[in-house]
């Protein structure tokens, strides 16, 4: 197989993995978070939106909040205990604007 074709195939595989990864974070957000956090805001506590939240400054703090919940926000152990989903959701949340 020609090197150019091989490089093209490898590049496409890597690009598609990143696209699936990004869509996973968005999908997890829409399925679990968007009922209270529409567009990264906060319906129940408007002064505490996800966008710009200090919780997003630290991955471990974000993980703890999902694992145990806080205030009226319930825990989401199904996400917190799945490293790939947790990372995908975190990466999606830090990009919200």
Describe this structure in words.
It contains 4 helices and no strands. With 97 residues, it is mainly alpha-helical. The chain has one domain: Cytochrome c-like domain (Cytochrome Bc1 Complex, Chain D, domain 2), CATH 1.10.760.10. The longest helix is centred in the first third of the chain and has 30 residues, at 3-32.
Set out the fold topology.
Blueprint: H1 3-32, H2 59-68, H3 77-80, H4 83-94
Helix pairs in contact: 1-4
Overall residue-averaged pLDDT value: 86
Helix-strand sequence: HHHH
What structural category do the secondary elements indicate?
Answer: mainly alpha
As for the number of domains, it is 1
Q: What's the CATH first level? A: Mainly Alpha
If classified by CATH, what would the architecture be?
Orthogonal Bundle
Which percent range describes the beta-strand content? under 5%
DSSP summary: helix tally: 4
The stretches of 5 or more residues where confidence is low (pLDDT under 50) are none
Number-wise, the strands total: 0
At the fourth level of CATH, the homologous superfamily is: Cytochrome c-like domain
Rg? 17 Å
Largest sheet: none
Helix content: 55-70%
User: Any idea what the shape is?
Assistant: globular
Kindly report how far apart the N and C termini lie. Answer: 44 Å
Assign the CATH topology.
Cytochrome Bc1 Complex, Chain D, domain 2
